[in-house]
Amino acid sequence: MRSYNRLPAILSILFVLMLISGCTWNNSKTKKKETQGQSGTAWVNPRKGKIWDRVNVFEIPLTAQEYQLLGPIKSVRYAEYKTHKDGTITLIDSGYLVYDTQGHLVDQIMFDSSRKTACTATYSYNDQNRALEYNYTSYRQSKPFSEKVTFQYDSLGRISEETTVESNGANKKTKKFVYDNNGRVIQEINFDENEKIQYTTVIKYDSRGNETEYRNDNAGMRMTATYDEKGNKIEAYNYMIDSTRPLKETMINDANGWCVETDFYERDGSLKAKTKRTYDKYGNVLTCIDYHPDGTIDENYIGSHEYEYDQYGNTTKQKNLFTKNGKRKLKTMTISTFEYY
After folding, report:
1. How close are the terminal C-alpha atoms of the chain, in Å?
2. What distances in angstroms separate CA 221 from CA 147, 225, 262, 308, one per listed residue?
3. Are 29 and 280 in contact (CB under 8 A)?
4. What is the CA angle 101-163-156, rounded to 5?
5. Which residues contact 66 (CB under 8 A, 6 or more apart)?
6. What is the pLDDT of residues 220-258, one digit of tens each?
7. Average predicted confidence (pLDDT) for the chain
8. pTM of this prediction?
9. Containing H/E element for 147?
10. Which element (helix H / strand E) includes 92?
11. CA angle at residue 46 from 149 to 215, to 5 degrees?
12. CB-based contacts of 85: which residues, under 8 Å, 6+ apart?
């Protein structure tokens, strides 16, 4: 069962590196599904048991299987386009991903709107098929910027340490992971180049292994969540900015675990807006409509999506459309070509 749109999901593990370097990747290609309404960005179908769909080193999907790609993937080429008010369509960005016969992502390149190389990454693995290191270069600056990230593992095969260093050896940063007896990460400890602790992120779980709290006191970040018996998030609180009056969201999920409604609340507890969604048989969002607190449709945020699939069920074309004042218009479109072994 496929619970999210695989096309945006496959297109950029470099999201992690974008955060490091400032390379401006489009989030729609790094997250499972995003809908933008007046209530803000709502992530649809995050990984089960996760407070938010962040990408941590121990969650990096470096294989086609983790990306929910189907078939013996060899490579993926993609291009994303946008429509302007005058009806013209222009390129936003494009890219190319290469997988080995084991399904591991080994090479990745992204081009900007002028088809110039924007970012590249290469990945290597050890004999146990575990990620060993990846090298990243951004060409968006006047001078190319490069970093290398290496991983170390404990005796149980879990990532114990991640080290990031620039190509000239400067700005070395290390992140260490602490696990509980069930093999779940409970602390992420970040060190600066002088090996002094910068900050620590704490993660707590319920009895089913779902994340119930994600906290980084240094950044003033604290989020909590509750889940149903299937591990689907049904309620979340964000305590950033105001620790005494968190922002609240509630979710309604269907039998497949797909989020069909999200309600957003103000800090005083009043309803701010709600978003309702429908899906196709693959779990990709077909419609996404925002509503005002009184139940009327927000005419500014009526979204819909159209998809085409190849013989393996991978998404080859995605059209993102918006309806405003009764007129349905194409906003963005992503086209992908898959090569198989």
Report:
1. 23
2. 27, 14, 22, 39
3. no
4. 65
5. none
6. 889 999 999 999 999 999 988 777 889 999 999 999 999
7. 81
8. 0.77
9. strand 145-153
10. strand 89-99
11. 65
12. none
